[in-house]
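Re: the request from the purification team.
They wanted to know what the chain is likely to look like in 3D before they choose a buffer screen. I agreed to run a prediction and write the result into the notebook, where they can find it.
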Amino acid sequence: MFYSSQMATKKTKKTSAQKRYKTVPIPNTITPVPGYPNKLVIYKSPSSPYWYARYFVAGKTVKKSTRTEGKAEALKFAKELYDTLNYRKQQGLAIGSAGRFETVVNTIYVDQQAQITRGQLSPITHESYKYRFNKHIIPYFKDIELERINYLVLQNFLNYLSTLPEQLRVSTIRLYMHQVKKVLIYAQRSELITHMPQFPKVGVKDNPRGYFTTREYKSLAARARALVGKEFEVRKVANDAADAVEPEITVYQQLGKTDAGRQIRKVRMTRDLYELIVFMTNSFIRPTDIKNLKHKHVDVLDDNHTYLRLNLPASKKHDKPIVTMSKAVEVYLRHKKYYKEQELIEQQQREEQEAAMAAKLAKQRQQASKRMAKHGMTIPTLTQREAKQLRKQENLSKKSSKRLPTLTAPENYVFLPQYHSNRDYALKQLQRQFDILLWSTGLRNNVQGEDRSLYSLRHTCIMYRLMYGEGMDLLTLARNARTSPEMIDRFYASKLKGEDNVAMLQSRRRRTETKATNKSERLALLLAEMKDGKI
């Protein structure tokens, strides 16, 4: 045992010695730079065919690869290194690894982890930062000194991003450039560089999501209701197109219709999707708000106007309550009532199952007692089989007591509350169902070819207010939708034409009394049930 550990120690020492040997300068290659201090030299090592430059300054030994095999070029590089390091010393700037691009990035990671702890940054945003840094930014800038990053270097990086095989979108390229700028701002504030270089401009073309016309919206809602309970599958099949770039394409099919290709997943259409479509089109909320929306965030108000006040957690630096249309009240109460009834039905079924099992166990014991009495014996303690059935009944009772109607409790979620512990998955399920609905209705793209997604329902809600709202102003609409008037104009109202609001353009201001919300019979009935405590 001692011998093996001794051998392992020797082997470790040998390996570390070999690593050191590869980076140790070859003695006959060490060359001082003529006309400069003896501390500035160039040399070669067994680890690389290139020359290295070495200089001792401010108590630190700085080594840099010259990236050249020519001695004249190596001497020129060493002189530039000498000037740079002495300049940094005079300016009080960092010397060595502290001034490297990657070192600053790692410092930014530490700061972002602290922001996550304080709740100021989401883990998903942090991971997106890391992905972009590791994908293209660090590989490009790792060998470039921070003070050497100027407009030309940034322009070359922009050109590099623009010519990648994956053809990044302009908005994505802008994110990459923003992260590079973040590093340089941090470097300047940390006094690693003296000034910020100018950045090349990246023009971003606005890409508004297509909204649904009133006819398309009615078709979408009707189809969503008809598909409740049906199952579909997502499959990958061979791409037979002559000019195909991808070998496989994604297709949607009703479950069991075909076995072509390979199955990716099954998707069951739920009632929640139908209710969500109507709710989002009448509540201004974003899809990401859906996974956070709890019953405690919802206040039902029924006075001169009937609406929901949504006190959602802050999103995109907006924390003001959202006021919904009256239709959203009807959807919310109906949806809540449905889940409450479903829980009562499930509880009743569990109680019936427990009662049936108890009756079965009592009957078995009665029969066993009769058999034992014939032989003049008393029934013993529980048999192994009976004990097992009794434990099963007790477990059901415990499970039932834990599963009291809670899906409509204040702390639970409004949509797909059964996925309480994984809200990202709940939102993903709704998005997958919506993708199938768009495929089923043929509404994936509008007539202009613009792509649609779950976010298009928010776009539709805002567009309907701009088109059909009386005297609607952008500031009120923007604040209620938790955005800015500029964003409303750029991303939502960009499709709005003057002809869409002729009546508003030709209208005259007049005094009118505040009109109460017109309630439908269904909404009035649901409000009455809520006040009676039934919902």
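For the purification team: DSSP finds 17 helices and ten strands in the chain.
Please add any questions underneath this entry.
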